[in-house]
Design brief:
Order of helices and strands: EEEEEEEEEEE
Distance between the termini: 40 Å
Mean pLDDT: 96
Strand content: over 45%
Shape: globular
Number of helices: 0
Structural class: mainly beta
Largest sheet: 7 strands, mixed
Length: 123
């Protein structure tokens, strides 16, 4: 099992950049596919994207494609979400997630979740 703790969320202005981190502990980090989700107030949780175990492959959903980058450092047991050109509609609680089962990179099925970190984008 893996434990996940997100950090880095804060209040920023539209157009700013922000990097979120997700620290993992427990089983070997490199054995997990990882992903990011977000949930805005009053909305359902939304898949942001995923990254393969090695970090060689990534997937992004259309709302963030070209603005967000997912990366991982397996030596540091850490997942990252670099967010550029932030928009007001990016305001949400961001969650990292992990899965041990091998699935297609665009699959939204994950087994383990962090507690989330709040990102607020103001105008």
């Amino acid at each position: 099992q893996v434990q996940l703790v997100e950090s880095g969320g804060r209040l920023v202005q539209a157009g700013d950049s922000l990097r979120l981190s997700c620290a993992a502990s427990g089983r070997t980090f490199s054995s997990y596919g990882m992903g990011w989700f977000r949930q805005a107030p009053g909305k359902e949780r939304e898949f942001v994207g995923g990254i393969s175990r090695s970090g060689a492959n990534t997937y992004y959903t259309d709302p963030v494609k070209g603005r967000f980058t997912i990366a991982r450092d397996n030596a540091k047991n850490t997942l990252y979400l670099q967010m550029n050109s932030l928009k007001i509609e990016d305001t949400a609680v961001y969650y990292c997630a992990a899965r041990s089962t091998v699935r297609l990179i665009n699959s939204e099925l994950y087994d383990y979740w962090g507690q989330g970190t709040q990102v607020t984008v103001s105008s």
